[in-house]
Amino acid sequence: MFTEKAHLMQFWEKLYHIRIVVLQQLSLVLSLRKHMLLMGVHFVFFSTFGQQIVDNQCNVIPPGELTGDFKLVNGVGCAPLRVKVSNQQIISVENRYIFDYKGGNPYAYNTTADSNFTYTKSGIYYVMKLSKTTAGVLQRACRVVTVQNRTAPEFKVLVCSNGSVNLRITNHAVTEYEEYVIEWGDGNVTIMNRLNLSAQYRYRDVSSKQITVQGRHRISNCGEKSTQTISLETINKPAAISKLEILDASAGELTISNPNELELELYRQEGGGTFRTLGTTVKNSVEKVKVLVDTNRMFCYKIKARDSCVAALESNVVCTAFLKVIPEPEANGISFTPYRNPSDVKSVAVKRNDVLWWKPAINQFFKSDTEGQCGKDACYRLEITTQGATILSNRICVGPPPSLCNLLGSLFVPDVFTPNGDGVNDLLEIKGEIDGESQTLIYDRWGSVIFRSSVNVRHWNGSINGSPAPAGVYLYHIKVTDKIGRTFIKRGTVSLLR
């Protein structure tokens, strides 16, 4: 009688566990299906999801073990998410839990008997229960917890004409809400899903409005919200091209300011043609864009918004500018072409070695540079300032004029002379072998020519218009042409002592 009763108890225990196995496998599959759908992924098989972690032993119960059971409360929600577990088996002892099972041997994990756990980060988690039957047989069960992101949505509002606004969610890649609830601040509400992250709305008046956007997850219905106050009388600042810099003969760089962070499109005009899109877009508040240029063609650029409600807010127009330097024996010839839109120009300057060298008048486009330092290049650059931008031309570096550095070796000019009539060093004269023409110019401290040599008078006697010149320092410019036509120039100072 006792034996039959014992066999009957074993039979009912096995039958109970068979029932638990079937129900738990079905429950886990349904749970995973719900969580997969919640994350926006199509559910195919339970084993497919199990491959998301290595050696997921929730999928297969090892031989000699049974499938257990437990109840999970609050398995879907926003972080921080507090869940509660409880045992659902009559024949279950030594109940222990792993709240973040990541695969592998579960008996290598630290377990807890606590029935509550709080998840602080978003993600999908496995909860595993380890227990024993009253007969000492090991058993396990798994559930899935989905912790959703509750980051507040970020959005931008573009104020258009006639009280219209365009709203755009800007951080959906972080929040991943299934839908967004927009409270426009006048009692009306718009709900938009994740497939369309922008909305348009038109107000009946132009008073300030407080717009609230709440991100919302389905099923759990949780999420966060953020608020902005807008003025419908605000005039949008147009984007602007603040700088055009020519980098070399074929490349330039535009610096673009985009205060409203609109989606902008870059346009180019060649010569006197029409502006055509280059297909380049700009979205950041400040951005640099490389463009192709050509020294033989005039290119002009502008940008405008793609959004139709502010398409009229076009930027300023900037055009390319190039500098030409022609090296000559006695000077470097610097020239440039007039700017395409003269009325836009505020100032024009040519810099030499990054220092202002020439400020051309409105009708000046050429100047000779007779200065230079032997053995060192001079680098020239044109800088045009318009109403809203700076245009920098190409930078050209050349050596000094050859006449400054190829001086006749035998040419000598004294540093001092004393025109006092004592017959010693009374004249400023060039010493050396001169086999060609020569010219000497003497300047006073104000740059006026006070002596010019001629065929009959080749040396300065220290007088100005027949009167003795005061003692001091004077500048000279000596030009010598040799027999084969080479021209040499020497500049310097001489002291007149009395």
From TrEMBL:
It comes from the Bacteria. It holds the Pfam family CHU_C. InterPro entries: T9SS_type_B (IPR026341). This is Gliding motility-associated C-terminal domain-containing protein. It comes from Runella slithyformis (strain ATCC 29530 / DSM 19594 / LMG 11500 / NCIMB 11436 / LSU 4).
